[in-house]
TrEMBL record:
Cellular component, GO annotation: cytoplasm
Extent of the signal sequence: none
EC number of the protein: 2.7.7.77
Catalysed reaction equations from the record: Mo-molybdopterin + GTP + H(+) = Mo-molybdopterin guanine dinucleotide + diphosphate
Annotated positions binding GTP: 33-35, 45, 93, 124
Gene for this chain: mobA
Domain of life: Bacteria
Organism this protein belongs to: Parageobacillus thermoglucosidasius
Protein name in the entry: Probable molybdenum cofactor guanylyltransferase
GO molecular function: GTP binding; metal ion binding; molybdenum cofactor guanylyltransferase activity
Amino acid sequence: MAGIFSFHCLRDTVKQRMGERGQAVKGMIGVVLAGGQSRRFGSPKAFAKLNGTYFFEIAVETLRAVAEDIYIVSHPSLLDRFRQKTAEKVITDDERYRGQGPLAGIYTVMKKSEAEWIFVLPCDMPFMRPETAVKLAKYADEKFDAVICAHFGRIQPLVGMYHRRTFTHIETLLQTKDNRMKSLLDHCHIRYVTEQDFWENEIVFCNVNTPDECDNIVT
Ligand SMILES: Nc1nc2c(ncn2[C@@H]2O[C@H](COP(=O)(O)OP(=O)(O)OP(=O)(O)O)[C@@H](O)[C@H]2O)c(=O)[nH]1
Ligand SMILES: [Mg+2]
């Protein structure tokens, strides 16, 4: 991993509603998941920087290409820090499920918003880019409960779109303390979007977990 970082059919209607260069898709909101503990990283990953840009800002800019509205979902301990650094909407995980991982973040935003689709991104994929979101958003399709990136054989549950009809099941999982994204995916009818659908540079999906994974990243 260190090496990599050292180098420097709603579907049709969605297509019609969205320019090739990317603009907000009607009924789609964006969520930056930033409520993790960053234990392996040692400091909050959202505030690590790549080339002077905070990681969380990279996710926000990516989502701006497709989302009508954006929420950063974090932890109460980081709220002030976020508010000093961004004018974006920052909320915290629903109290009932706080600490239960990314699923809690998705739940929180679905509860707050009536948007049909929730486009999720983690705050720790610093090579993510708007073009990827635009290409993925074109696969939003009412036939599916979720549309998830699965390039190069790696399913990325935190890079994808969840339809709001998944809300009830997410709530059930959280109530039973089953916090695994896999449990949600197992229950859903999913469109996995792969390199056969659109080609993307593998580095875009690299996520940072430890400081030594990213030589050129400032913490
Ligand atoms: N809103 C929210 N986001 C979370 C939660 N747990 C993890 N995330 C986010 O989900 C993404 C992937 O999480 P991890 O790689 O496990 O990150 P982490 O939990 O901060 O890191 P570790 O403590 O080292 O596991 C990151 O963007 C996290 O910020 C949570 O409970 N709530
Ligand atoms: Mg974690």
